Structures are given as C-alpha cells and as structure tokens.
Amino acid sequence: MILIIYAHPYPQHSHANKSMLEQVAHLDDVEVRSLYQLYPDFTIDIAAEQQALSRADLIIWQHPMQWYSTPPLFKLWLDKVLSHGWAYGGEARALHGKSLMWAVTTGGSAHHFELGTHPGFDVLAQPLQATALYCGMTWLEPFVMHSTFICDDEALQPHARRYKQLLLDWQEAHRG
Ligand SMILES: Cc1cc2nc3c(=O)[nH]c(=O)nc-3n(C[C@H](O)[C@H](O)[C@H](O)COP(=O)(O)O)c2cc1C
After folding, report:
1. Which of 23, 53, 157, 170 is the most exposed place for a label (fewest CB within 10 A)?
2. Which pLDDT tens digit goes with each residue over 80-112?
3. At what angle do helices 46-55 and 72-81 cross, to 10 degrees?
4. Which letter does DSSP use for residue 49 in this model?
5. Are the beta carbons of 113 and 106 closer than 8 angstroms?
6. Domain range for 41
7. Distance in Å, CA 107 to ligand 1 centroid
8. What CATH number does residue 37 fall under?
9. What's the domain count of the chain?
10. How far is the centre of ligand 1, averaged over its atoms, from the C-alpha of 139 (Å)?
C-alpha cells in the first residue's frame, strides 16, 4: 500500500499538487491523507495516523515547499506521530523497512536550487532524510516539481504524469 501524507495549507488553491493528486489518488492501493483537511484546527489524531502508516509499504510526504521547508502542520505531524516508543527508541520498529519518498513542489526553478547562492536541493532534504533514516526507513530519490510559479496547468501535466508513472513503477516492482 502507498500512503500519501499530503500537507497543503490551501488545497483548494493548489495547481501543482492538485495535478499530482489527480493522477494518483484513484490508483489501486493508494491512500491520501490531506492533513489540512483532516485537521483544520491542528489537533492531529495520532492513533489514526499511526494506523495508516502501519498499513503502508511506501510512505510519501507530499507538500509545497514553504520557506525552504515544510508547511507547519506537516512539521507538527512529524513531532506528534513519529513518537518515542513507536517510531524510534527502545524496541520501536513501527516504520522499519518501509520506503519513504519526499514529493515536493517549488515555485523556484531547478537552477535556483543549484549549489552556489542558495543551498542545494540535497541540503534542503537533509532534515527529512535524517528523520526517515532515524526511524529505519529507506530513503528513495525525491520527486521534485520545480518552477510552479511560471507553469500553467497544461505545463504541469507531464510532471504530474511522471509522478503517476513513478508510483506505478514502484507498485510493479513490489507486487506479490
Ligand atoms: C509561505 C510560502 C513560502 C514559500 N516558500 C518557497 C520557497 O522557499 N521556495 C520555493 O521555491 N517556493 C516557495 N513557495 C512557493 C510554493 O512552493 C509554490 O507556490 C507551490 O509549490 C505551488 O504548488 P501548488 O500549486 O500546489 O500550491 C512558497 C509559497 C508560500 C505560500
């Protein structure tokens, strides 16, 4: 099962993430949890989130980049849900062996993230990568959709289809 933890503060105004979800939400064995719609008051149902994670083989953290980081509800989700004694610490192994993919959209272009003036993309991924590894997950190559500031809906489509193909390929490789 693929579980997409989706954190968009204004999902109704999304273009990039919405186009991605339209491609994948109805695939077999894909579950989407839209955090801002589930928890508009930021009160996260930790047990429900942990149960969903337990069912998943591939976990995707999908969100728009905000100030080189994640939207705030997603950070709270990490703090609350990946709890001591469940995700890490002692004998905790709830997430061990699962795969983790970061799927992020950015207003800036790929060039904006090249090492130099700004931190490279690998640098920005490090807190999430470290979190995944600390919980015993396998960190996959991130899916990145750049340049959303300048892309219209038509230009976003090939990228959204690439996302779908990535998930289909993963399912094919892990069938049975
Ligand atoms: C508060 C805020 C902070 C943002 N910070 C960044 C950023 O640091 N880097 C970047 O490339 N884009 C940034 N953006 C642009 C968003 O990443 C972009 O609008 C989003 O990926 C588009 O996806 P959507 O159509 O699903 O909303 C920011 C947007 C907002 C609202």
Report:
1. 157
2. 999 999 999 999 999 999 999 999 999 998 888
3. 80
4. H
5. yes
6. 2-173
7. 5
8. 3.40.50.360
9. 1
10. 23
